[in-house]
Amino acid sequence: GIQVEQSPPDLILQEGANSTLRCNFSDSVNNLQWFHQNPWGQLINLFYIPSGTKQNGRLSATTVATERYSLLYISSSQTTDSGVYFCAVAPSGNTGKLIFGQGTTLQVKP
Amino acid sequence: ETGVTQTPRHLVMGMTNKKSLKCEQHLGHNAMYWYKQSAKKPLELMFVYNFKEQTENNSVPSRFSPECPNSSHLFLHLHTLQPEDSALYLCASSQQDGVGAEAFFGQGTRLTVV
Fold first, then answer.
1. Under an 8 A CB cutoff, do A41 and B88 touch?
2. B-chain residue closest to A88, CA distance
3. pLDDT, tens digit, for every residue of A15-37?
4. Which of A78, A108, B42, B96 is a good FRET partner for A37, with 20 to 30 A between their CA atoms?
């Protein structure tokens, strides 16, 4: 089956710094989503981005489907950005049948 | 307030108990899912329902029994669980209409089996 790899696994930043999280996937996908998991476990939708570039405030994402990777950019990081960031892909058909990466754990220090 | 609501948020149950997890989506979607997140492991898909019909069972043990009475509600019935079943159980929904759409998740139920 399709493999999803995220890097780095852990990231520590000072408040105000910028960062880039990467997601590589091993086959073509029908859906790609980025999530932020808060300390209570809820997955917060960040981007639905099977291809192209999107921006939402300090966050932006780019998916290059032909090269099978996606990037999540966090600018001017804040302590509230801390948590686990997941990339998830749906290989084909049902776009809700997501395969998740291992996640990147981000800690933003004041 | 999210479009997908799960209850209870926390559950502690003994290995001989029977309990149920509930999920309700208010987004008008036609597909619902159960995912499991164990410690130190990525989220794993358990069950998929399209238009109330189960379309996928990802090799889940029979002690987990899903039920989808309508497109808005999804249950996960639990019986004779093991301590290793302790995990965060997440429900999701999406609209499957051939175009493709994003999935939305509930807050999760944190289950502890003692």
1. yes
2. B43
3. 999 999 999 999 988 899 999 99
4. B96
